[in-house]
Each structure stands twice: as C-alpha cells, then as structure tokens.
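RECORD TYPE: inverse folding
INPUT: structure tokens
STRUCTURE:
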C-alpha cells in the first residue's frame, strides 16, 4: 500500500492514554490525599482521646465518626482550593481582557494620529472624528487627545485667500483647493474642542 493510500493514524487514543494518568494523578493529589490524611488524623485523635474499652460496636462508631470528620474537613479544604483556583482564573481573565483593551486603544489612537498626517483632507477629518470617538469612550485618553488636536491647530497654516481667476494656472487652483480644505479640517478640530471644553456639552 502506498503512502497516499495509507489511512492516517488515529493519535487521539494515544494522547488520551498519555494525558489521562497525569490528570488523574493531579486530581488525586489535590482532592483525595487531603481527605485521607485528615480522616487518618481525626481517627487517630479520637482513638487516643476516647477510651472505649473492649466494646467493638463503640470502636466501630468511633471509626465512623473519625472518617466522617476527616471527609467533612477534606471537603472544606477541597472547596477552599476550588474557590482559590476560580479566583485565580478570574484574575487571569481580567488581566487578559485589560491587556486586550489597552492594545485596542493604542491601535485606534495610532491609526487616528497617522490619519492626521495624510495629504487628503477627508482622511484628516476622519482622523479627528476617530480621536473624538476614542475620547468619548476612553476617559483616560481624553487629555492626550485634546493635546494632539491643539498641536494640530498650532501647526503652520496659510489662508487660502481669494479664489484664483479662470485665466490663472491650474496649480493656483489646486493650491487654493488644498488650503480651503485644510481650513475646513481646522474648523472641524475647533468645533470638537468647543464641544468638549464647554460645561454645557459632554465635557472632557
């Protein structure tokens, strides 16, 4: 039989055989061992402190009592261990969620700032509104976002001036269009600052 015709070997039973003994060993050590030890300790204490003489029935009842005490105590220990494990898992989940949220915030912030450096006015506007939305959803980033918008407005800007005439070169028309669009971007940035630095509006 060729290799192409050979059926793939099923490794699942083998993996189960390798994993199961270790898993059961851990379960035994964590749960069964404390119960056995505590039951033995309880039984020993009862036998040493209570004199039943030669009464076999009393001795049997004493053994039952010792085992019951040991099992109950072991159950409490197992419950404490399970609670501790659940708490640890919850803490790990919270830490993972927090890290994922922080990475997402960083990605959104970085992308928005990169958009502000675009040569296209529409992309710059998108970056401003992305920063505004990020600030609305993330209070810890609001001061940084306001500083970025203010820094953008402090960058050099040349007014568009009067529109060029029809007989002027095309590059004059293109320059006028770019400066007019930049003016709209800056007005949008100012409106964002006004919206969030006035107590009558959603204040940052």
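DESIGNED SEQUENCE:
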């Amino acid at each position: 039989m060729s290799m192409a015709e050979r059926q793939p070997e099923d490794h699942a039973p083998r993996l189960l055989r390798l994993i199961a003994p270790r898993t059961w060993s851990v379960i035994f050590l964590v749960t069964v061992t404390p119960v056995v030890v505590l039951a033995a300790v309880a039984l020993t204490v009862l036998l040493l402190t209570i004199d039943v003489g030669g009464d076999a029935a009393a001795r049997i009842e004493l053994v039952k009592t010792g085992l019951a005490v040991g099992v109950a105590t072991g159950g409490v220990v197992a419950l404490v261990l399970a609670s501790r494990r659940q708490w640890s898992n919850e803490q790990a989940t919270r830490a993972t969620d927090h890290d994922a949220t922080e990475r997402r915030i960083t990605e959104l912030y970085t992308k928005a700032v990169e958009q502000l450096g675009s040569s296209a006015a529409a992309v710059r506007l998108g970056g401003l509104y992305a920063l505004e939305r990020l600030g609305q959803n993330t209070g810890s980033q609001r001061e940084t976002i306001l500083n970025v918008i203010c820094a953008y407005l402090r960058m050099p800007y040349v007014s568009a001036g009067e529109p060029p005439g029809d007989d002027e070169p095309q590059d004059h028309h293109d320059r006028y269009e770019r400066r007019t669009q930049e003016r709209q971007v800056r007005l949008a940035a100012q409106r964002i600052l006004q919206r969030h630095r006035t107590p009558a509006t959603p204040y940052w």
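NOTES: Confidence is low (pLDDT under 50) at residues 1-13.
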